[in-house]
Write a structure and sequence with these properties.
Blueprint (H helix, E strand, L loop, with lengths): L5 E3 L15 H11 L3 E6 L6 H12 L3 E4 L4 H6 L3
Parallel strand pairs: 1-2, 2-3
């Protein structure tokens, strides 16, 4: 992909892992592939345990934007906490 290319990871899926725990090593590979580009993703990993929260925060800090997805408006209100 060209530099600064906007792209979405996991259009029909979620971050790598087993549905409960994010595979931080696999996520790091995606972050590495995203360098110089503008990748973003959404995740339904919730509630965010410390492991998953760290993996998402690290990816965001390294340039891969990961947004938290909500299933309801009430759930969306809970996510910033």
């Amino acid at each position: 992909m060209p530099k600064r290319q906007l792209w979405r990871y996991g259009q029909a899926g979620d971050l790598p892992g087993d549905g409960v725990r994010i595979d931080a090593d696999a996520l790091e590979q995606i972050v590495h592939a995203n360098r110089g580009r503008n990748g973003f993703a959404y995740t339904h990993y919730s509630p965010l345990d410390p492991h998953n929260a760290r993996a998402i925060a690290k990816a965001n800090a390294q340039g891969l934007t990961i947004n938290l997805s909500a299933n309801t408006l009430a759930h969306a209100d809970e996510l910033p906490d």
